[in-house]
Design a protein that fits this description.
Distance between the termini: 34 Å
Order of helices and strands: EEEEEH
CATH architecture: Roll
CATH topology: SH3 type barrels
Shape: elongated
Largest sheet: 5 strands, antiparallel
Number of strands: 5
Number of helices: 1
CATH class: Mainly Beta
Number of domains: 1
Length: 72
């Protein structure tokens, strides 16, 4: 499953399942130390793994959509 880091509040990370929209709250200690808002995580083998390539793909897609809206 893939999750987007919605926000981090003190010791809790709020994640959104990309496919279902389900919100999950987990202890920040269960994540890699350098996790930030908008990072993409893959849940595999009972741990969350940061996926920088997926994040870049999603950001590029959002930028393209924004440019279409702006008419560029």
């Amino acid at each position: 499953m893939k999750y987007s880091v919605d926000r981090i509040e003190e010791d809790i990370a709020i994640l959104e399942n990309i496919e279902t929209g389900e919100i999950v709250e987990i202890n920040k200690n269960e994540l890699e130390e350098d996790i930030k808002e908008s990072d993409i995580l893959i849940f595999k083998d009972n741990k969350y793994i940061k996926d920088d390539e997926e994040k870049e793909d999603r950001l590029k897609s959002l930028e393209e959509k924004f440019n279409l809206i702006k008419g560029e």
